[in-house]
Amino acid sequence: MDILITGANGFVGKNLNSYLSGNFSISNLSLRFNKSADIIINSDHVIHLSGKAHDLKNVSQPSDYYEANFELTKKLFDAFVKSDARKFIFISSVKAAADDVPDVLTEDVIPNPVTHYGKSKLMAEEYIQSQKLPDGKSYYILRPCMIHGVGNKGNLNLLYRLIKKRIPYPLAAFENKRSFLSVENLCFIIREIIERDDFTQGIYNVSDDEALSTNEVVSILSVSLNYRPSLWKISPALIKFVAKLGDKFHLPLNTERLNKLTENYIVSNKKIKNQLKKNLPLSAMEGLKLTAQSFQQPN
User: Fold this and answer.
1) pTM of the predicted model over 0.85
2) CA-CA distances (angstroms) from residue 152 to 23, 173, 182, 292, 298?
């Protein structure tokens, strides 16, 4: 079975290549360097990871998102429709559905993204859903929440480095619950979709089973270093003021990053679990422990 992967050099791509290699024939396609060239697909399935991630520093141009996340997805999907490939798996984002989640995010929510990142991902989703597919073809739109694992360079890595320096976590006064996704669980789900014929095409949220508080995450990362968790409950009002200064002076803590660390963002994975009819390989805590261990390895 041949699989074409875009974005293979990214964090998820590297993990997915490693996860699938040995069982499948993998070919990689860089859309970044083939913007004007025709795309020819000679694989059985397409896994589209490539895209522009959300920029926490807010220095990207809006057009960058629509070019990378919509236009190139459209071009790749058109090539898929013309090819003999059977399954198209698009890695979108929960941010295509909602930036704020007051309760629990399900696939039934009416999408209302507010960032160019989320809007561009939603445009790609809507294009895929609007196209009539020939018999034998199907699409799967996966909306992962915050992904972590080996090679992760995001907020969890930043948090880990702060803890390693023995810097107390100053946001402990914020009480929250949010969903995470181990990259191994994501890879497992993708492989199940590839290998099985009983998956119904459509949109699926993807997350670990349990939601965790950031304080719990800090504790897990601290224990991985054999440290006692150091949680400071500083006034949220003061922290928000400092974050606004970070917006203005480009400091490590800004409003965007503060929201990422302290927001409630619980994602339901019930729909895809009903399709899987299997347990995910890792619990949320097990996945985070493995990620913490990976941070200790030399780059």
Assistant:
1) yes
2) 24, 26, 10, 10, 13
